[in-house]
Amino acid sequence: MDHTINTQAVVVVAICVVLWGLFSARLERMNVTAPIAFVLLGVTVANPPLSLIDFNLHSSTIQHFAEATLALVLFVDASRVNVRALRADVLVPVRLLGIGLPLTIAAGTAAAIAVFGGINFWVAALIGAIVAPTDAALAAPILHDQRVPEAVRRVLNVESGLNDGIVTPFVGLFLAAAVADETAHTAGVGQAALALVYGAAIGVGVGVVGAAALLITARRRWSAPVFRPLAVLGLAVLAYAASIEAGGNGFVAAFLGGMAFGTLTPPDDEPTVGFADEAGELLSLLVWFIFGAVLVPGLEHANWRDLVFAVLALTVVRLGPVALALLGAGLDRATVWFVGWFGPRGLASVIFGLIALDALATSDANRVLAVVTVTVALSVVLHGMTASPFAERYGARATRLHPARPEHAPATPLRTRSLGAGRRHQHWRHVTRGVAQDSW
133 in the Ramachandran plot: left (φ > 0), alpha (ψ -120 to 50) or beta? Predict the structure, then answer.
């Protein structure tokens, strides 16, 4: 593998980051979200006619960078969704995550088997798991659209903040099983299961001890408010790296570490988690840039089966399980379909696809990568184009629903990753107040 760092690539990427920082608000008013912008920038600068930079898809640097990004995002997203704060209105998120997500994985597996005849079962299951998690970053216009009831936006936010962490063990087990099938090595699944246990134990331990340490030192004024965010970033990295070092699953450790940390810390302490969140968002943008630079050009090698699966993944594979999961929840039919449609596929799917690329045999790796690329690219376009018009139509219908309906239930906003300029403005206002008040 190539381990070198291309300084020319660094310069080009840095310029792209600066350009987004300068024009982000204007672009978002045109429904151009951060992921869309960085995918387009990646396609433009890394491919003809410009071809300013050259990325190697099989570079260990790209894979390690992507994995570290996902670990940080998992920790921060999980820490945002405080379990105590969810107890008052946990019904719909639990249905989506506990019923809808497993059904989505199963439906995706069945669709892969049906579309790609003769595909290995575990590879099909891996595809089903990789394309199951949703990404709040691609639904940013919806999450900040006041026409959509707060309770519905909260459901979408919580689901996308947690489902990538929940799906991680499935991806790990299915990938291990697929590799074991290819190599006739039966110990792979058992090792993967043991890695999940190690990762869970280390992650929870880091989250609990880290939260307790921050609480104690803050109350005794041993730690300065301006530097506490560094400790959170360090905890996220520690949970991931310590688990990897011990032979555990780093993603599970990061996710459960963030969950434990968020449950034990004040739910309104935005400044402390904010720095790690900002770091994760910047890294996420760079992953989207890499997706555009390296993976999107590979769409020319995809075939009609990949497109058929992508369409199924974004429609019936998502909508059917959501509808089944929400039966009896008292939600309007339009709400069920709105929640079902806005399940965009994004960062987690891209990174899981890159991980599978180096683990599987060439033919299976190419199949997984093609499917993931087509599905995510199609999601970026379709969900980006339909966000505002669908929000307007659904918002108009929601205003006609009786005030006692679940859609209008009181809901305290829970912030997860969305990469939105409007959300960022609210965030910095909160940070300014939070630092001044020192809510710890």
Answer: beta
Mean pLDDT by 10 residues, the chain (440 residues): 66 92 86 85 89 80 88 88 62 90 97 94 96 84 85 87 89 91 64 88 96 93 89 94 93 92 77 81 90 84 93 96 93 94 91 89 90 93 86 92 85 57 45 40
384: its two tokens: 């980006």
d(CA 352, CA 420): 24
In whole angstroms, what is the distance from residue 99 CA to residue 326 CA?
9
- Closest by CA to 369, choosing from 329, 434, 310, is 310
Alpha carbons 53 and 344: distance in angstroms, whole number: 29
Of 101, 102, 127, 103, the C-alpha closest to 114 is 127
Tell me if the domain spanning 59-437 has CATH number 1.20.1530.20: yes
Closest CA to 376 of 306, 283, 285: 306
CA dihedral sign of residues 224, 228, 423, 82: negative
- Say how far apart CA 7 and CA 186 lie, in whole Å: 43
Closest CA to 381 of 326, 299, 275, 264: 299
How far does Cα 63 stand from its chain's mean position?
Answer: 16
Where does 291-361 have alpha helices with state H?
304-314, 316-325, 333-341, 347-359
In this prediction the pTM is 0.86
Structure-token pair, residue 188 = 């792979």
3-state secondary structure of 418: coil
* Residue 67 CB-half CA count within 13 A: 19
Residues in the chain: 440
Q: How far apart are the first and last CA of the chain?
A: 46
The two three-digit tokens of residue 192, written as one number: 């993967």
